[in-house]
Amino acid sequence: MTDNARPPLVEVAGFCLSLGGKDILRDVSFDVAEGEYVSIIGPNGAGKTTLLKSIIRILGGGTGEIRVAGRALGDYTQRELARLVGYVPQADGRMFPFTVREFVMMGRYPHLSPFSSTSPKDEAAAARAMEMTGSAPFANRHLDTLSGGERQGAFVAAALAQGARLLLLDEPTTFLDPLHEANISRVLRRVNREGGVTVVAVTHDVNAAAIRSDRVVALVGGSVVFSGPGRDLMTDDVLECVYGKRFVMVEHPTARMPVTVTDGVEE
Question: What is the dihedral of CA 87, 174, 230, 235, to 10 degrees?
Fold first, then answer.
């Protein structure tokens, strides 16, 4: 269960999934409370992306249960689920033949009737999302003319325009320079803290996960090995359990918690 009194928006109970004859997720159980910011960490191949794709139903099958807003995942139509859950995948270099405005407007599709045109409400939601992510100056540019950071901002804007209560993000700041990483992180904190949007983000940045999240879930070999506050994550024993190595730790000057440094000494 969640660590606070807020009701769970996502409930994963005993979930297992095999792909190509290989067990990817093994008895995964955790909840995400309404309005929480949860980071999912773990080594490569731990099943983090597979877990997100299972929650958004890009991947089907599996045993156990996933519930969103109190309903079993299988009970939703795809349109109903899209009204609740937005998804930002890993940046993979693929280009789309759309302007930023066109792409962000696509985030409104769960709210449109078949053959209907966009309304002023849809236009306003897209404009608000572009402004929030800093994408407004690029609204008329094609995605393939943007830098990686600018393009990632447009992807986040499309998810925000969707108006979902839950955002699932797969390494949203990977490959970004420090400025764009800070901008995307600021947007996510704002929509979470001010807008009440629940955020579940996969990340390889252990320090950011510990400092920015309400809670961190760690996967190893497809199983949950840690779920708790970031401060509890940042111990030698827990991090070694997750990553199989020791870390050099220092005190963060403002967060007042231990963080890892990159030039750790191998034993």
Answer: 140
Taking alpha carbons only, the member of 35, 40, 34, 29 closest to residue 9 is 34
Strand, helix or coil for residue 169: strand
Range of the domain at 209: 36-56+78-235
Give the long-range contacts of residues 191-196, CB within 8 A, separation 24 or more.
191/132, 191/160, 191/167, 192/35, 192/37, 196/34, 196/35
How confident is the prediction along the chain (267 residues), in pLDDT tens digits per residue?
454 567 899 999 999 999 999 999 999 999 999 999 999 999 999 999 999 999 999 999 999 999 999 999 999 999 999 999 999 998 766 677 899 999 999 999 888 876 678 899 999 999 999 999 999 999 999 999 998 888 889 999 999 999 999 999 999 888 788 888 888 899 999 999 998 999 999 999 999 999 999 999 999 999 999 999 999 999 989 999 999 999 999 999 998 899 998 654 554
CATH number at residue 158: 3.40.50.300
Q: Tell me, yes or no, whether 257 lies in a domain.
A: no
**What is the rounded CA–CA span in Å between residue 109 and residue 88?**
16
